[in-house]
């Protein structure tokens, strides 16, 4: 819906902007960008750009990411950028604001730790000599060993909702023909990053049949969820890279 709305706005602006000193349009794709930009000249060295892009790709860096499954993701960027061309070449530096909207749904199977104690007989060299010289009165020792195992099955599952709705400052460099220069087909490239800070993270949890609500294991895990949810905010990088290339036409 947002893409259609932006395209309609772009077409509505094409006619008046094309009669201005300069106007350009580009289609872009990249690491987290798939969309369209329109640009117009502000002065001999400065252009202004309005852009919209969307993407569907995984975007999380969790320490135990193998336990998580991303079931849904959506990302949209609406950008207002200003390009400074320091020379007659297409090289530019860009700055501005990006309205960044992203939603990710993650799910995982909960786990509990269990301590298991096993016993075994010590058959080392010292035990052998002790047994030999005491005429088998003191032989094998019984040794207890405690290990910790993790049970995944039938404990429960919970899901996370990760949301961004933020105006993020952007800074980058790139290449494109200046909008004030007449006519032609060319290419664009951008490399930069914007500061999206930390997301809003919420979670829901349901205990499994083997550990129903009210049992000690279920209660203990529910108490730990809030700490894990708070820690997840720091698992997402605050700076989001933005790399794109595109085809541009200057009117």
Explained architecture:
With 251 residues, this protein is of the alpha+beta class. The protein is elongated and about 90 Å long. It has helices spanning 2-18, 125-133, 216-232, and strands spanning 23-30, 34-41, 46-55, 68-84, 91-109, 112-122, 141-151, 156-175, 184-195, 200-207, 239-250. The chain contains 3 helices and 11 strands. The protein has 2 domains: 2-111 and 152-250, Beta Barrel (Porin), CATH 2.40.160; 118-151, no CATH class. Helices cover 17% and strands 54% of the residues.
What's the short version?
This protein has 251 residues and is α+β, with helices and mostly antiparallel strands. Helices cover 17% and strands 54% of the residues.
Strand fraction band?
A: over 45%
* Sheet/helix structural class: alpha+beta
What fold name stands as the CATH topology of the largest domain?
Porin
Low-confidence parts, pLDDT < 50 over ≥5 residues?
Answer: 1-20
How many domain regions?
2
Strand tally: 11
Biggest sheet features: 8 strands, antiparallel, barrel
Highest-level CATH class of the largest domain: Mainly Beta
Specify Rg, calculated over alpha carbons. 30 Å
State the shape: elongated
Q: Separation of termini?
A: 28 Å
Strand numbers in spatial order across the main sheet: 1-2-3-4-5-8-9-11
**H-E order:** HEEEEEEHEEEEHE
Mean pLDDT: 75
The amount of helix comes to 10-25%
CATH architecture of the largest domain: Beta Barrel
Helix segment count?
Answer: 3
